[in-house]
Specification:
The chain is mainly beta. It has a single domain, classed as Lipocalin (Beta Barrel). It has two helices and 15 strands. It has a ten-stranded antiparallel beta barrel. The longest helix has 30 residues. It is elongated. 21% of the residues are buried.
Amino acid sequence: MKKSIMMKKIPCLLLGMLLLALIPSVATAADEGIGLEFEVLPWYTDLEFNSKLSTLTSDGSDLDHKSALKLGDETLINWRLTWRINPDHTLRFSYIGVDFEGNTIISKNLTLEGQSFAAGSRLVTDIDFSLLEFSWIWNFLSDKYISIGTLVEVKGLFMDTELFDPVSLVKQQDELTTAIPFFGIAVSSEPFKFINIFGEASGIYVDQKNYGYAYDAEAGIKIIPLDYVTISGGYRILRINAEDVPDYLDFEIQGPFVSLGIRF
């Protein structure tokens, strides 16, 4: 899918351009307490994905995407650029892009955007998933050993679903795009200069019957063996439950992650 490939390339290009633009001022900024960190985080996830949508139906019943379409668990690559403006304020830009793929003979009739696929057909599934995140942390409590702050985020979710029958050559696509605000708290502690223990949780709850809820939480430990190198590991869970009765979508990914970072 050319469009989805471009969607994956654009955030990486923007990150590269931003880094190039900021490099000349990093030396001066460091003296003023400003710090940049670029991280690559492989996230070893377990997927849960259930829905009942007017655009995607399965004989009128709920659809377990992972089971019905034989979607596999994937390792997501999370790209993060964090700018610590000063001890009290931090901005973070994050991007995740992955394809969830499946290939199976379906046991129930499926309909996507009016296009039907009969039970017994072989169906190749490609769900192109992208997540853009912009976060702001304001530490209202910050001292030598611990920081506690508010966390405000906007998450942009892009999901492009493609179903393909290799026998009849029938193909159908559907796109989902949404932006969700998250509010929460971030905590970090540095018991030693080279160790940082961190955790954060954010989410939103509107009305479970009409809108739903979402939350995102992670915790881990970061080791700083050198002034400009970081290594971390932890666990993260992201869940989005959206409802507009009788339609609903329940999407969850969770699992451990590791990361390698470079500080400027």
